[in-house]
Structures are given as structure tokens and as C-alpha cells.
Amino acid sequence: MSDEIISERLWTGDYYNEGTGRSDIFDTLKEECGVFGVFGHPEAASLSYYGLHALQHRGEESAGICVSNGEEFNYHRGMGLVKEVFDRDKLMSLRGERSIGHVRYSTSGDSRLTNAQPLVFKYRDGDLAVATNGNIVNAPQIRRELEQSGSIFQTTSDTEVIAHLIARSPKDFVEAAKDALQRLVGGFAFLLMTNDKLIVASDPNGLRPLTMAKLGDAYLFSSETCAFEVVGAQSIRDILPGELLVLDGNGLHEDRYTAPQRKALCAMEYIYFSRPDSDLNGSNLHAARKRMGQMMAQESFVDADVVTGVPDSSISAAIGYAEQTGIPYELGLIKNKYTGRTFIQPSQELREQGVKMKLSAVRRVVEGKRVVMIDDSIVRGTTSRRIVNLLRDAGATEVHVRITSPPFKNPCFYGIDTPDRAELIASYKTIDEIRREINADSLEFLSPEGLIQAVGGDNASDYKGGLCMACFDNDYPTRTSFEGEEKFGCSC
């Protein structure tokens, strides 16, 4: 790359999405990670490539695929987007009938190739590859114990903990994996691969999504069902809390490593993270978000001229709000698709433009109009204020903000990158104070009951609809601190 090009580019660092943790100028919640696995297909690497491409929204900093042909591993990992990390030649070199893949978003700024997944290790029984989505809350404690007994860690990723636990166990691979998983506390979805086996496991609460499909005789696994549609696979079911699947030469074996606990799938998967064409627990995300908008309209109607949603995750809810109220839905905000979902470190001059780099208001749509702006959440409040002011600058006479989640008051310990509690505006301001802070004419949040009813799905009769809503109500389904440490974000 020439010096001239370097001087003109709009980011710093070696690649476009190099992470800066919580210093992103947009205060939206950050993605977790995504995993994709294949067992029993001759084009396992290519399927993983397309699957990871469909999961790109879950992590844009690194991508990797590890393939086994039954005798040895071949793998490739790199920093950046899936399409940048892999080309035809790299995929052609990854030969085998089983694979695991990963897209990663690091939350602490520790964005480097050594932490890119899948992590690959040599141990007494051969090769071991690990990919995960989530956060192991007690990983620092386990890591200290392992280091004190002689383990040497090669990465700063918590995912390496399970590899050391497995390697130190005298038991066979499957039993060692069960014992290791039983020691972990947190939210996680694991894919563990050796040359002859693939293990798939979900945490005891099912906090992180993981689902299974079939393509001919092959089994596929993914963080979201949208990845199955891309490769033409047929979804079968979600992996159950505490479940452990073993795939080997004798087929699929359904087992579990622990008893299931309270079902608590992350509510933000429904509200924001997952793609609208994905299904979770028998509920389509687009349909669920439309119901959130409809419920929002029933709880907090306001007379207005147009309804618009903040793209992309709030479009479905905005359509639902408009259908329920009869107020026309319009594209009042347009997203610049080329900034990336986590645009990192623009130049200082462009930083002043803030949200204008990512969103544009359609003046002819909002000028002289009373606008209902639908969004999925408010974190620090800075982006909401920018968007409200963007609509006002485009001529909106009133801006009424409706948020299709309850107030976000508490940090996540299970895989979402959230600020400290003191930085979450809803933790220390009233709704009216937030309204004034973001310069809105009115502000309302969806109630917890409304959210649960809107999500519905197979777990509607479970406690809190089978959702983890700790970020709203401080009711965490697991322990969140060990030896005085609080650990949040996605540590995979």
C-alpha cells in the first residue's frame, strides 16, 4: 500500500475493522461472535465460508475455518471480513469432510491474529480445534489455577481455558469435554473438533443461540438459522441447554454434560443482534420484531404523520408500529452500507460529522412532519441524540422516540460488549431525563411484559418467556463474579 493511500484512508491500524473496544463513536451494542460447523460433507470448507458470510454481522474483526480430513487439520485464519480473509485458493487448500468456522468481534481492543478462532492445539490424542461464541465468567479464576499448576497459555482468549482442561484430563476426549464444560460458568456455544469427532455443546441456560440442520447426510451447526438458508440446508432444531452432541464415524449421538437450568436465551438476540430472516426457539425474528412494534404502539401511541425506523434492526418494528397505528411507514433514515456495522476510527475531521457518516435523513420525507422514530435500544444516549437532531435538521417538527426494549440498565456478562453500568444512561437517569438528553419530544420504552409477549415462540410459558433479561432487570441466571471480579463482554 502506498504512502499516499495510507495518508488518505479513513481508519487507523492495519486493517479496516481493527478493534478499539468501547471507543467506537457509535454507542450501539456490539456483536458477539458467530460459529458454524459441518460434519460429513466433502465441501465442508466451502459450506463454512458461506455460512460465516451469512453470520458476518456477528463479528467483523477476524474469521477462520479449520478442516479435518480424518487424519490431519488444515486451517486458515485472518483479520478482517470473511471475504477478505478467504479467497478461492485458500478454500481449495482446506480439504476435508468436517469443519468448524468462526467470526469474531473482540470487546477489549485485544484484536490480534493469535486470538482469531478456531483455536488449534496439539495434545496427547492429536489435534484439537475450538470455536465458541459467548463469555466464560469464571475463566480468570480457572486460568490462574491452570497457570499455577504449569499450563502455558498462548492467547488472551478465554476459549483457550477449555482446551487446557481437556488436555490435562486423563479421560477420553468426550468425557474430558464433559468435565471441562461442567466447570464453566457463563453463556457459551462450543464447537470442539478432533480428527475423528465433533462435539457441539450449549451452556446450561441456553444463553447463546446454537442450532442444527441437515444437508443430505451431513449435519450443520450455526449460531443462526439464516446461515442454513444460504447453503440450502434444512433446519432441524435448536441445541438444548446443557446438551452435548457427539458426531463421529457412527453418526450423531445425543447426550448432555449437565442438567438444564432455567432457560434464558439472550433477549437482545430478538431485539437487535440476530438477522431478521433467522428463527429462534420457533419464532421468526422479523415477525417477533413486528410484534414488538405493534405492542409498542398499544402501550405508547402518539399521534404523528410518519413512522420511521433506525436501520437496519429497527425496520421490522417500525413496520409493526405503523401497521398497528395506521400512521404511514416511511424511509426517513437511510443507512450508508459502506461504513460497516462497526465503523472504526474515522479521521478527527470526519469524527465531527458523527452519525452523518452512517445515517442520512430523507428531507422530503420528514420535513414539516411529526415523526415517530423507532429504535431497538439506548445505550449511552449519544447516538440517539445525534439521530434525533439529524431528523430535526432535516425539518421534522416533532420527533417522538419509541424504543422496542425496556431501559438498558445493566451490563451483560454473557457475550455482549456493554459499557460499565455507570455509562449506561438508563442506570442513572429517569425516562424524562433521557428524553431531554436526546432532545426528543417524547420517549417511551417497551415494557418487559410487552417484550415477552411479542417474542412468543416455543418457550413462551417459561419463566420470563425463556429469556435472559438481566440487562433490563438485573436478574442474572448465573453467578457473575468470582473472587471479586466482574467480567463482561464477549471473551471468545
Automatic annotation (TrEMBL):
Keywords of the record: 4Fe-4S, Glutamine amidotransferase, Glycosyltransferase, Iron, Iron-sulfur, Magnesium, Metal-binding, Purine biosynthesis, Transferase
Domain Glutamine amidotransferase type-2, chain residue ranges per copy: 33-250
PROSITE patterns: GATASE_TYPE_2
Cofactor: binding details: Binds 1 [4Fe-4S] cluster per subunit.
Entry cofactors: [4Fe-4S] cluster; Mg(2+)
Catalytic activity: 5-phospho-beta-D-ribosylamine + L-glutamate + diphosphate = 5-phospho-alpha-D-ribose 1-diphosphate + L-glutamine + H2O
UniProt binding sites for [4Fe-4S] cluster: C266, C412, C468, C471
Catalytic residues in the record: C33 (nucleophile)
Top-level division of the source organism's lineage: Bacteria
Residue ranges crossing the lipid bilayer per the database entry: none
Binding of Mg(2+), residues: S313, D375, D376
This enzyme's EC code(s): 2.4.2.14
Pathway this chain belongs to: Purine metabolism; IMP biosynthesis via de novo pathway; N(1)-(5-phospho-D-ribosyl)glycinamide from 5-phospho-alpha-D-ribose 1-diphosphate: step 1/2
Biological process according to GO: 'de novo' IMP biosynthetic process; purine nucleobase biosynthetic process
MF (Gene Ontology): 4 iron, 4 sulfur cluster binding; amidophosphoribosyltransferase activity; magnesium ion binding
One Pfam family this sequence matches: Pribosyltran
Function: Catalyzes the formation of phosphoribosylamine from phosphoribosylpyrophosphate (PRPP) and glutamine.
Record-stated family: In the C-terminal section; belongs to the purine/pyrimidine phosphoribosyltransferase family.
Listed name of the protein: Amidophosphoribosyltransferase
Native organism: Fontibacillus panacisegetis
